[in-house]
Amino acid sequence: MSETWTFICSNEELLPGEMKTGFDEVTGAPIVVFNLDGELYALEDQCTHEEFELSSGELDADEGSIECILHGARFDVRDGRALCAPAYTAVPKFPVKREHGGIWSRDDRD
Known about the structure:
The protein has strands spanning 6-10, 19-23, 30-36, 39-44, 58-60, 65-67, 74-76, 93-94, 96-99, 102-105. It is mainly beta. The strands form three sheets. A four-stranded antiparallel sheet has the order 2-3-4-8, with no helix packed on it.
């Protein structure tokens, strides 16, 4: 588990309906942060179906979901739950915060 927050981007770089990626400075876990109407959500940037980066997929900001381009698995960006096959396991959700003009996240898994 990482106690160290990782800088993802400045507040101005992540507008509503957009996403930005980074890597946890301690664990190396890939992180994708989403802005849904000003609310921030962070998930591990990896599909649980076939370990492919979610950030290369399509974000549906109205639905609040991301679709993996590999096989079409969709996940709720607010809580990481799988919305359809072929994925059945949720994507880990990470904490995210705004601080010092930036957006920060970290891998808080044990």
